[in-house]
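Design a sequence for this backbone.
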């Protein structure tokens, strides 16, 4: 497949391309061993894979102990996570996301416009949901979560500054895809 892609680039006189491979779907491609001179590899961190077809109890037991501890602590403090439709929480998500990018001094490239988010939502339709974490009726954190071909994936997220000391970690929340719906479990 990669050779076909390279031949196509040559045929169309394209001299460079930026590719971002999906760690699950493209796991059969090893750029380090298939002519490494052609690739600049930027590793951005570990990818955590969780089989969401397992029962909630199995997923919980497979989770790191420190993540279970953090989730239990958040639960006892009153934090609740749930999946919501994008239209209901988009404005809140954008505010939280921008606040987070400002707090971490993110590069300007990470400050997406409202138009970007609206087009992203429109393009993905019902394959995009927002995971919200709330406490006492206030949204503490939110993330955009995509689902495609049975793969649920975190996209972007943030935490309101006032709740940052608690760090309700969206990456620690386990989200199960149930056909057309997603649900948060173990929170």
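Sequence:
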């Amino acid at each position: 497949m990669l050779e076909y892609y390279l031949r196509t680039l040559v045929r169309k006189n394209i001299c460079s391309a930026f590719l971002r491979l999906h760690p699950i779907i493209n796991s059969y491609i090893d750029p380090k061993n298939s002519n490494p001179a052609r690739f600049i590899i930027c590793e951005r961190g570990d990818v955590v894979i969780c089989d969401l077809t397992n029962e909630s109890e199995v997923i919980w037991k497979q989770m790191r102990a420190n993540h279970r501890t953090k989730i239990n602590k958040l639960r006892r403090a009153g934090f609740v996570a749930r999946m919501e439709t994008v239209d209901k929480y988009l404005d809140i998500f954008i505010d939280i996301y921008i606040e987070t990018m400002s707090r971490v001094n993110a590069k300007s490239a990470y400050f997406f416009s409202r138009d970007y988010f609206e087009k992203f939502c429109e393009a993905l339709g019902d394959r995009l949901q927002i995971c919200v974490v709330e406490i006492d009726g206030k949204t503490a954190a939110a993330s955009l979560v995509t689902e495609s071909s049975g793969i649920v994936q975190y996209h972007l997220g943030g935490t309101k500054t006032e709740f940052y000391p608690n760090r309700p970690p969206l990456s620690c929340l386990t989200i199960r895809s149930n056909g057309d719906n997603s649900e948060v479990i173990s929170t």
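Strands lie at 80-85, 128-135, 138-148, 151-159, 174-178, 181-185.
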